[in-house]
Fold:
Amino acid sequence: MVHNDHDGSRSRRTDGPSISAIPYQEASDGKITRLLSERERDLIAQISLTVRFGRGDTIYRAGDPAAFVYNISSGVARTYRALPDGTRAIIGFFFPDDLLGLAEEGAYVNSAQAVTAMTAYRLPLPALENLLRRDATLEWHILVKLCHELRDAQLHAVILKQQGALSRLALFLQLLDRSRRARDGGSGEIYLPMTRSDIADYLGFSLAAVSRSFRTLADRRLISFRDRRHLLIADHERLASLIAQQAPE
Amino acid sequence: MVHNDHDGSRSRRTDGPSISAIPYQEASDGKITRLLSERERDLIAQISLTVRFGRGDTIYRAGDPAAFVYNISSGVARTYRALPDGTRAIIGFFFPDDLLGLAEEGAYVNSAQAVTAMTAYRLPLPALENLLRRDATLEWHILVKLCHELRDAQLHAVILKQQGALSRLALFLQLLDRSRRARDGGSGEIYLPMTRSDIADYLGFSLAAVSRSFRTLADRRLISFRDRRHLLIADHERLASLIAQQAPE
DNA sequence: CGTTTTCTTGATGTAACTCAAGTCTAGTGG
DNA sequence: CCACTAGACTTGAGTTACATCAAGAAAACG
Structure:
């Protein structure tokens, strides 16, 4: 029997470092492209170690000296920031082939935790910088990846700017769906490795509101849940038109 | 008489391309650092042209083929996206020494306009890519700049996640103040080149709410306006503590 | 199989949106 | 230089959507 792989979090061949993104210049029909050549992956492999994290483990903390960049090979991570008002803001969710470890003046900007069990390549920053200053093509690929992350961060802001709770959640689901499609295609089912509370802290509303909004979308048959972690967008059209109008239908 | 320069938008010596950012590794005490060497600035100057925009002029539109990257030398720009619901989301404000022109698959992701009269260096993308693939150090500097922009975009999301209108506006003012301090220091006065409506579309609330929130902050003596475009943070402490507690004092 | 964590659902208050009228400001032409 | 006008901003009143508080249900875990 063919094993289940569409979660993107289990059973991925861990055959070395890998980085993917939607390109800056070349058309790719919305598809994510593997950026690194065999040689480049070897170069990175030579300076990196494989590390493993359990669900909920902390990968690094905001403010810590930034010693490493992480390249996820399996599992899902979240980055977040503790806000002055005592709440938590989730900055983003990270999947295999993503990079983790943004810093400013030598210190991590956000904290990072494993959402699921996770493996990653750990790249020491000095060695990485060395490598990049020597190999312009490899560096170019990192640059393209960074542009991808920048677009993601901007999209996050756009989602947060959305007024109604339903629109915001709908946009989030579209985002997950697009990323799913860009990666594998697969069954069409969206996988939610994160908790409702993670989603709330990512979308900027309360846990209760997330729950209610999911229910409303399900009641209107725009989505359907297989279980709490797996859902299907049942009506892409109406979901999109929900985002378009601000008045709740 | 010494002419007025603290707006950061007028009378800057346009002595060639220049890119600044808070570094990734090196400590700089929160200060913005000029990233490019003389030689690197020359290299960029050789492939670029100076272009000029009037207030409100469009620099490029989302979806257009991405032919250029812009390096602002004077004035302020905004990038934005038209949302399906008919509203506008402002992605960011851009100042001298910033880069403009993020693309995906060869097309601009956002639209860009001049907030004030503006001059910029216009870099053709193929020439730029060529340059970068040849010069790893220059490319490294662009990479550092991109990390800076990524942190900015993340901070934007954090601001939008803030619950109360006052907190959100206060955070925005802190952001502007930090960026002012990182650049010049100057008079301590914050300059708002953008309209109230721009601020509303950046912070994700209504024009009316921006106005009211400014008024409330001024009434409580946390800030003071010289005119609509220039304000002073009168009490940094209480402004910070306003952000820390969610309940309005 | 019991315990803990995560999630759902209900009731209430409030902050901010909308709509709308009025004021200020800057830019233009007489 | 001043009057005029158009756009930008402020302020007010009513309404609604979501946060908050709180209790109950369902998974997940050992």
Q: What stands out?
A: Residues 69 and 101 of chain A are 5 Å apart (CA to CA). Chain A touches chain B through 60 residues (CB under 8 Å).
